[in-house]
Amino acid sequence: RSFKLSYYNEYKSYLRMLSRASTYLRASVRTFSSVADRFSAAQTKLNTLTEDPGNAAKLKLYGLYKQANEGKCNISKPSGFNFVAKAKYDAWNGLGDMSQDEAKEAYIAYVDELVSNALK
């Protein structure tokens, strides 16, 4: 009986801790939610970064985001003189036939990696 009461008190303490968590912590808590919900939470979590992750990371995120939302790259290759558009195209087109759900999972994992590296 005392074991159950102790377990119950620990559980209540845990719930109080969760209720006071910041937006970042709430976005970090993994639940059994859909890929779409976790993808949305990853986008929110990405906004918690205080430092610029760099152009390579931003291009990777761009490609994964476009693949997750639109599927396979469906635009024509931009001219070589438009460096930004060409880099974005290469980031998206480089993902090939990756499914939208796979792209969402990869986006979520990459955001988690960026945030955990930022905390170090």
Give your account of this protein's structure.
The protein is mainly alpha-helical. The protein has 6 helices and no strands. The protein has helices at 2-19, 23-28, 35-46, 55-70, 83-93, 100-118. The mean pLDDT is 84.
Task: State the gist of this model.
α3 packs parallel to α6, α4 (55-70) packs across α5 (83-93) and α4 packs antiparallel against α6 (100-118).
Q: What percent of residues are in strands? A: under 5%
Secondary-structure element pattern, one letter each? HHHHHH
Estimated structural class: mainly alpha
Number of strands: 0
Shape: elongated
Distance between the termini: 42 Å
Largest sheet: none
Query: Could you name the ranges where pLDDT drops below 50 across 5 or more consecutive residues?
Result: none
Helix content: 55-70%
Q: What count of helical segments does DSSP give?
A: 6
Mean pLDDT: 84
- Radius of gyration (CA) equals 19 Å
What descriptors fit this protein?
single chain; 120 residues; mainly alpha; elongated
What topology does this entry show?
Blueprint: H1 2-19, H2 23-28, H3 35-46, H4 55-70, H5 83-93, H6 100-118
